[in-house]
Design goal:
Helices cover 25% and strands 36% of the residues. It is of the alpha/beta class and 171 residues long. The protein is globular and about 40 Å long.
Length: 171
């Protein structure tokens, strides 16, 4: 089994001075690396009972869809504001410099459903926490969050207390 970190390009001082950007495009173009990444994310869900996977735009789509497909589950896209055509539920959340709004169709999940969130990166936890809040507003339950990468030093888990959080790669 390969070390997936070897397939991820690190770009210093992007998008700003002092930041090391973890570029997954180099992993995605490697067929074996991409397959291993998806397989390892899927393994993190062994033994977890759930009904549906949510993935935030856009890299949550990349990883959430194949995991949902492989596990015989549905997939719900969580989009940036204004991208969905039917009635939505929205949540504003903090970014480093300002705020953003994410949305999902109001009828995409139902009260009582067990939900898994799949995304590429856990940094500060802001996006994931906003999704958790939307799920809970509908009356469903987030039973696990699975990430390809976790930036441990940003302590994103603190934004998601008492949650099952799994990551394949840690920086």
């Amino acid at each position: 089994m390969m070390d997936l970190k070897d397939k991820i390009r690190s770009i210093e001082n992007y998008p700003q001075e002092g930041v090391i950007f973890r570029d997954i495009t180099t992993l995605l173009k490697d067929a074996e690396g991409m397959k291993q990444a998806i397989d390892e994310m899927q393994k993190k869900l062994e033994g977890v009972e759930f009904d549906i996977i949510l993935g935030p735009e856009s890299r949550g789509f990349i990883f959430g869809m194949p995991v949902a497909y492989n596990m015989g589950k549905g997939f719900v896209p969580v989009r940036k504001k204004g991208k969905l055509p039917a009635e939505v539920i929205s949540k504003e959340y903090a970014l480093e410099y300002g705020t953003a709004i994410i949305e999902m169709h109001k009828d995409a999940i139902h009260p009582g459903q067990k939900v898994v969130i799949v995304d590429d990166l856990l940094a500060t936890g802001g996006t994931a926490n906003a999704i958790v809040e939307m799920v809970e507003e509908i009356g469903a339950e987030v039973v696990a969050l699975v990430f390809l990468i976790e930036l441990d030093f940003l302590e994103g888990r603190k934004a998601l207390p008492d949650r099952k959080i799994e990551a394949v790669i840690h920086y």
